[in-house]
Fold:
Amino acid sequence: MQTQTVKSTEQFADSSYRSAVHFCTQSRPHIRLAVPKLEQVSAFYEVLFNQSPSQQGEDYVRFELENPPLHLTLVEGFDAQPRDGHFGIQLKYTAEIKEFQDRLEKNNYKVDLEETETACCFSVGSRVWFTDPIGTLWEAYVLIGENTSEVRCGPTCACEAEGCG
Amino acid sequence: MTTSIWQQSQQSKPPIDSAVDFPTPSRFHVALNVVDVELILPFYQTLFGKQPDTHSDGYAKFDLKEPPMLFSLNRVVHNAKGNGDFGVQLNNVHQIVEMSDRIKSAGMEVLEQDTIDDGTVRKLTVMDSEGNRWTLFVVLNAGTDEE
Structure:
């Protein structure tokens, strides 16, 4: 019979168990997006995150972000089809929404919709909506409060248009 | 009366506009379209190790400190593609071991797994009930561990 050794926390302190990559949090989200044209999509994410990729190869580009904590890999030709739903960057100050909008517009990416204190998905928020070059929907937003009404979303909210509920 | 440097540093920050606070300056958000929120929910409860913070008909939201993320499930039947490729990058292998134990005791199937020489899991991939993949990983060798 095989016996399994259970490691103590001290044993995991050994550097061979620790990440070779440093980041500020204990963990961070990862997304992998399949894209038909790497350069075009990568250029958009450089503007969105205001940062160059940390790694790139022939068929992939990786962004490692501290703010928001995120590990994003773009892979070319890997079963490329559009995503459903959306991604977002949740902010704390409404002035920061404008910073995202200004940076995108200065680089000729347009913002699709601006919402100010709009009810959406059981909360009220201010946000801008935009899409990456392959149609992935993004929002930069601040959650202003809970939506206490019976109605899940307001009539103008972008996700209502998508048909949630 | 003098205030300590810590109080001064608190005072220099204007109050936030956000109704919710979180430890990082900004936070990543994923809104995933799904066919059946109730059916898919146990997978995410196991993955994140907690109950949703908001849960109502056709909607669930997880407000997570680790990984810093606001994750929501929205019932959007006509546009639930189930092609998401998500994951969590971790700082230490012991976090993978903990998550792996939770996943295996819930009876969830592990699709792929990568172990290091002593058999400890470094990376594993699971799939929710609609086909979205989640890979939990620690990069132990920068440049060669590809995620």
